[in-house]
Amino acid sequence: MLVSATEMLKKAKAGHYAVGQFNINNLEWTKAVLLTAQEQNSPVILGVSEGAGKYMTGFKTVAAMVKAMIEELNITVPVALHLDHGTYEGCKKCVEAGFSSIMFDGSSLGIDENVEKTKELVALSHENNMSIEAEVGSIGGEEDGVVGMGECADPQECKKIADLGVDMLAAGIGNIHGKYPANWAGLSFETLDSIQQLTGEMPLVLHGGTGIPDDMIKKAISLGVAKINVNTECQLSFADATRKYIEAGNDLQGKGFDPRKLLAPGFEAIKATVKEKMELFGSVGKA
Ligand code: 13P
Question: Which of 49, 230, 238, 274 to mutate to test the pocket of ligand 1 (most atoms within 8 A of CB)?
Fold first, then answer.
């Protein structure tokens, strides 16, 4: 069932668990995430970056594929199709294409321009029964070409953006996209705590879910995080399983080169990663 992320995140925040956003790249990725969500009876958010949207030939293709797959696979758990780190133009395109949720990443703009554009997109998304995520303070590292310095968000600015009526708020708290460096200082729970105190019921979003230790994930959830984004970890599991298949020479045995066989171990590896994250985030059985 394709829905906006609003209700699932309200429920998650009230129930002290988080819904996973898993970024998708192609048909295998989408199918793996949807089937795992159904098997685990968990709500789920499919994240699509602008780069991944382009790779899949455009947002319309993605929306059509996801809607058809939900129907053909009889997926009954709540699924949101969400633009990840969208530009202003990208957000508008996803509204037209039939996504159910968008993220406007105005973190590189000054706070006034971020407020102005977010406000406009809140109205547009809500008119279309979609949810909207905004960002304050940048997430470090690179997400599909979007580079952030990783500074912690200012809680007062978070309140300003939250008051615009967004449905979820991503705030930089020392989190980084991709693998964490060995000298990473960890998440700033002090910042997270101040943000949650000022933004109250607002579901908070933790980007850069790959490689954050389990105890930090749990603490972040206890301080109001209700959505956690995971991308790199599924890519690493897929690549690792595919490499093992090829290094074992399986593609050279019989019809092992058949793409349905060649991509199967990577597909199963994505499923295993998604299941593990859903268990950690506490969303299993919460559909
Ligand atoms: P990772 O690639 O670090 O898991 O981050 C994903 C993310 O935050 C997508 O917005």
Answer: 230
Q: Give residue-wise pLDDT tens across range 105-149.
A: 998 899 999 999 999 999 999 999 999 999 998 777 777 777 766
Round the CA-based radius of gyration of the chain to a whole number and report it: 18
Å from CA of 255 to ligand 1 middle: 35
Residue 84 bears catalytic tag: yes
Q: Supply the residue whose CA is at minimum distance from atom 5 of ligand 1.
A: 208
* Structural domains of the chain ordered from first start: 6-281 (3.20.20.70)
Is the entire prediction scored with pTM above 0.85?
A: yes
pLDDT tens track for 17-72? 999 999 999 999 999 999 999 999 999 999 999 999 999 999 999 999 999 999 99
Separation of 140 CA from ligand 1 center, angstroms?
10
Catalytic residue among 84, 105, 144, 167: 84
Q: Which string of DSSP letters, residue by residue, matches 77-131?
A: S-EEEEEESB-HHHHHHHHHHT-SEEEE--TTS-HHHHHHHHHHHHHHHHHTT-E
CA of 211 relative to ligand 1 center, distance in Å = 10
